[in-house]
Amino acid sequence: MEDKRCEKCSYESQENKEIEINNKEFYLCSVCRKFLPSSPSDMETYLKEKINWQALEAFRKFSQQNKQGMQEKAKQGNIMSRAAFGYKIEGKLLVPDEEKSLIVQKIFMDFLEQEISLNQLAKKYSFSVNGIKKILKNFTYIGRIKFDRQILPGNHKQIVSPELFNRVQSKLENLGIS
């Protein structure tokens, strides 16, 4: 794989990613991608304002150290972010919330056993459709942690069985839901 040059700061790396802005393709490094403006109309101005890649080295080093720390935390099975719906944090541990964990189980069962759309399921449980998809795809519920494209054992109790989780994943895939 060849190095690509960031079009904002000229940093060369294999990790630079191609993005599309206003039907044009650009390569940007991870730091420059973090500071992209939210408005497409501001993108070209952002890209025209060049910055020296060396000025961003402190961000790169901090980002790499932060990622390494998070990878170690994930390998130890520790929580990586806020608690998923159905869990709460006690101390530094993720523990099932008695009431909400039952709702999570019902969501999984309803989706698997009923002919119900994600929209109907979302309305039934007062979630957005994306919220329901996040629940149905979240490895946390089977006692796992997903970080940096890896699925690792967690230090918390599962709310749903791996068998139920896998059956739901199969149904999502068969329905073309990503």
What does this structure look like?
- The longest helix is centred in the middle third of the chain and has 19 residues, at 57-75.
- The chain is α+β, with helices and mostly antiparallel strands and 178 residues long.
- A two-stranded antiparallel sheet has the order 1-2.
- The radius of gyration is 21 Å and the shape is globular.
- The protein has helices at residues 30-34, 43-48, 57-75, 98-113, 118-125, 129-137, 162-174; strands at 4-5, 12-13, 17-21, 24-28, 87-90, 93-96, 144-147, 150-153.
Feature tags:
globular, 43% helix, 17% strand, 178 residues, two-stranded antiparallel ribbon
Main sheet attributes: strand count, strand direction, barrel closure: 2 strands, antiparallel
* Major β-sheet strand ordering: 1-2
Report the radius of gyration as a whole number of Å: 21 Å
**Helix and strand string, N-terminal first?**
EEEEHHHEEHHHEEH
**CATH superfamily (homologous) name of the largest domain:** Putative Large Serine Recombinase, Chain B, Domain 2
| Number of strand elements | 8
First-residue to last-residue Cα separation: 28 Å
**Beta-strand content estimate:** 15-25%
| CATH topology descriptor of the largest domain | Hect, E3 ligase catalytic domain fold
Structural class: alpha+beta
Multimeric organization = single chain
